Amino acid sequence: MKALCIRKGVHLFNEKRIVRMRTPPFRCLFCGSEHGPFNSVEHPIPESMGNDDTVVPKGFVCDACNQYFGSKLEKQIMASPPFNVERVRASIKTKKHGFSKYADDGLILLSHGFWDHALCAMSPEKYKTVFQDNQGVLWVNTPPNYIILLARFLIKMGLELLVLSDTLDVYSSAFDKARRCARFGEGSISWEVAYGRFHKEGDLAISKRFDEHGPLETRRIYEYEMGCMLPNGECQLVFNYLGHCYACNLSKPSLQEYIGKFNFQMEIGSGLMLPGT
């Protein structure tokens, strides 16, 4: 089965870019409302993940859906692994331009502006668990229904990124199941997500230079690719965040037909994340 790449993007630390988009229809992509209001721009990839330049303009997502995704979906995902810890490690700033923070039982991690460095406060009990019982490995628990939340988050992201492409009609009935899953959770229990490790740590560095303050690196924060599978026309999103790579099908819940290719592309390990596991 052949694939046609319809949208591809990469965001680098220390780089800005401008994206052109189609004319807004003033019809909500998710709930279908034509009355809005449409007073807010929508970030397909949350600002707190490092996105400060890729936006869906007013007229595609109504304010109610925008607020719902921010408070009910993205907030929980940003507080879950691997995003919560990785944002601290990479010193990704929050939506309010502060440094990221991770807090767990007996542990606080604070970013302070330098990649791969974090301030740490740990209770004696937590220290014993991490460095003695787990041999230096920090295990971070996922919230209930994590894979369901993750699937809805990726679908929401994928549909909004399709707005940036003129290849497919994101309002097509082919994406009705996906939009209702993202916004209302319908069918989310069966929507599959694939996960793998794509880039090794050293591969995140794109370039390095020196100024009067010392070395300055440009690193890959996230990248995504939208693919249309031929001849059936199904659309998939592959999203890579600091080496953590995810994939989901925007046309139907199953990824079974494409998981083999996804596994082949991963450098470290991969597999399906099934809801309920």
Model description:
By secondary structure, this protein is of the alpha+beta class. The chain has a domain at 2-23 and 144-273. 24% of the residues lie in helices and 26% in strands. The protein contains 6 helices and 10 strands; from the N terminus they run βααβββαααβββββαβ. The strands form 2 sheets. Strands 1, 5, 6, 7, 8, 9 and 10 form a 7-stranded antiparallel beta sheet that branches. A hairpin with a 2-residue loop joins strand 2 (101-104) and strand 3. Helix 1 (63-78) packs across helix 4 and helix 4 (146-162) crosses helix 5. The longest helix has 17 residues, at 146-162. It is globular, with a radius of gyration of 19 Å.
Count of separate DSSP helical elements: 6
User: β content, as a range?
Assistant: 25-35%
The count of DSSP E runs of length 2 or more, i.e. the number of strands, is 10
For the biggest sheet, the summary is: 7 strands, antiparallel
**Low confidence ranges:** 1-7, 12-20
Distance between the first and last residues' Cα: 29 Å
Fold blueprint:
Blueprint: E1 2-12, H1 63-78, H2 83-89, E2 101-104, E3 107-110, E4 119-122, H3 124-133, H4 146-162, H5 176-184, E5 193-197, E6 205-211, E7 214-230, E8 234-241, E9 244-249, H6 259-265, E10 269-273
Antiparallel strand pairs: 1-7, 2-3, 3-4, 5-9, 5-10, 6-7, 7-8, 8-9
